[in-house]
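How it folds
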Amino acid sequence: MIFILASFSSTQGILILSALIAISLALAHLYSGWLRFKKVPRSRWLSAAGGVSVAYVFVHILPELSQHQTVLQDLGKGIIPYIEYHVYLIALFGLTIFYGLERLATSSRNQLQRQGQGDITSSSIFWLHIISFAIYNALIGYLLLHREEQGMISLLLFSIAMTLHFVVNDHGLREHHKHLYDRIGRWILAAAIIIGWVLGSRIEIPAAAIAVLFAFLAGGVILNVLKEELPEERESSFWAFMLGAAAYSILLLAL
């Protein structure tokens, strides 16, 4: 066991492990539909998974954003001198973008329902949603190899949180797009993770760009989890969400 851990601690070992995790994340997209969750009341497992994702953002990603903030402040001297909190504005931008996508999908479903065309989004909204989440997934695939905190434990913690986050995302996307998501969308999102990992294994972008990407991811994760948990009609489980968040927070702090 010690030998296995030591081998994965090397650069080559991390590369191999991250490749296996990228494949696992892709498979999570492809097969999460096999998990049958209740829509109302919301499955406790989905609420717990959402709690884990949010815990990772607040306990792990947001503290890292403060380190990225230093990078962006140095870059911004003489360029954007009046904006002190660039990295948090980028996180807000990520949250806003995904909120806008959610509103577009909901409005499209409501409009088609009123027209008697079924409870589904239009094809244009479907493609906008899928392309946006494909970019989001490619970013996560890239960050498997280029996070601020390196090492096997950090990689595993990131992968666990993102796997559960994808399960939550899949549930929401499937609810919006129905058979189109199963037939086309999930395959595109699975492929995007692999593409992101391949790019990460061949290209290393500057630290300032990593800071921007990481901040955008933080905002996106927060919105994509909370949009699934907060609507009253979902009857989400507060206790499951809290236990998921608390348990993963303790794990993150312990490691």
Residues 28 and 163 are 7 Å apart (CA to CA). Residues 1-8, 78-83 have pLDDT under 50 and may be disordered. DSSP finds nine helices and no strands in the chain. The chain has one domain: 43-115+148-254.
